[in-house]
């Protein structure tokens, strides 16, 4: 019996370091030691993050047609049924970084973002850094606007952000000229997720910057002068 006890103690002693060096257990939780602040690790984000920007253009009954039908509810607008659907871009990156796309438009630029479900292992590991919510900033010509923290469908129904109107970031070079087109860069940046709460169980932070080796993905939808309108 004493011999068996000694063997059990030896097994636990030998294998414990091995277990703590594998997979998810090696990931330190937010706020632990000197890693706090690296790539925003464990830090709260901009206090405005998670606040839906106002929907410009309206969703209600219109203003009697004075806006030419831009809110989709008046009779005075152009028929867009024959136009192409909004542009769709798959967004993929690793860490707290940015992804940019180039589009051609006149004086209209509206966007939506929908987070994707984790489908890649973290580089250098064997585990998926799963998250159930994500939010980003959309940047055009130096101007940024945030989405809300959006569900990707793992816990509750998948969500797409409200329509974010970035038309005011285009300048005036094409204002009033229906044939004018300009090339614009739209950047998806400052990704935030709920990995630490959802996967690790450390819910001191509802969301943090995406950790440096964690993949993330989603879809960006873009309305221009040449596409059908986005819809909420």
Q: How would you describe this protein?
A:
The protein has one domain (46-223). 11% of the residues lie in helices and 26% in strands. The N and C termini lie far apart (70 Å). The chain has helices spanning 2-20, 195-200; strands spanning 87-94, 99-105, 110-115, 133-140, 143-146, 150-151, 164-165, 182-193, 208-209, 215-223. It is built from 2 helices and 10 strands, in the order H-E-E-E-E-E-E-E-E-H-E-E. It is elongated. It is α+β, with helices and mostly antiparallel strands and 232 residues long. Strands 2, 4, 5, 6, 8 and 9 form a 6-stranded antiparallel β-sheet that branches. The chain has a 4-stranded antiparallel β-sheet with strand order 1-10-3-7, with no helix packed on it. The relative contact order is 0.24.
Give start-end ranges of low-pLDDT stretches: 2-48, 50-76
Radius of gyration: 23 Å
Mean of pLDDT: 75
Class of secondary structure makeup: alpha+beta
Total number of helices:
2
Question: SSE string, helix = H, strand = E?
Answer: HEEEEEEEEHEE
Q: Characterize the main sheet.
A: 6 strands, antiparallel
Overall, the morphology is elongated
Total strand segments: 10
Distance between the termini: 70 Å
Q: Helical content, roughly?
A: 10-25%
